[in-house]
Write a sequence for this structure.
């Protein structure tokens, strides 16, 4: 029961938790924030399970209250998310060749890959920009964009 109470305390008082972590670990807190956004944005199998949106909101509110450095929060979260997107894209470009070779697969077949390529050719930039605001899609879009051979520079521009 005590573990549940600690877990609930963490989620009801995240601002106090961030304040305590900042006092205890200093700059490492911003590195961890960046790592969370890196994992949420680029590692598609961990992204849906991380609280990136709510963490960013609480970190911003805590920075506005003067507890955290707002520029460090912005830098850590932005750099983490951008590098996460790059890693996700490169992973998709690398694994896409292997992943979409099974004709018997319902999801990962050449027909779906071709549909994704046509979609990114037509709506790529807008899809990437819009995906930044949709939690589950935010983790998947870099991998799909890389698999469908979207232009890397265009992907990064719209992702940023």
């Amino acid at each position: 029961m005590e573990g549940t109470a600690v877990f609930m305390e963490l989620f009801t008082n995240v601002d106090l938790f961030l304040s305590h972590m900042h006092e205890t670990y200093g700059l490492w807190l911003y590195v961890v924030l960046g790592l969370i956004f890196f994992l949420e944005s680029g590692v598609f199998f961990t992204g849906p399970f991380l609280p990136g949106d709510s963490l960013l909101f609480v970190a911003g509110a805590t920075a506005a209250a003067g507890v955290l450095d707002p520029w460090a929060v912005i830098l850590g979260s932005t750099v983490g998310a951008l590098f996460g997107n790059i890693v996700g894209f490169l992973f998709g470009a690398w694994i896409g060749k292997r992943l979409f070779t099974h004709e018997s697969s319902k999801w990962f077949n050449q027909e779906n890959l071709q549909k994704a390529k046509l979609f990114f050719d037509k709506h790529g930039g807008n899809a990437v920009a819009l995906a930044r605001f949709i939690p589950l899609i935010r983790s998947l879009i870099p991998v799909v964009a890389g698999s469908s051979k979207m232009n890397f520079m265009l992907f990064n521009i719209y992702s940023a």
In short: The chain has a mean pLDDT of 78. The chain has eight helices and no strands.
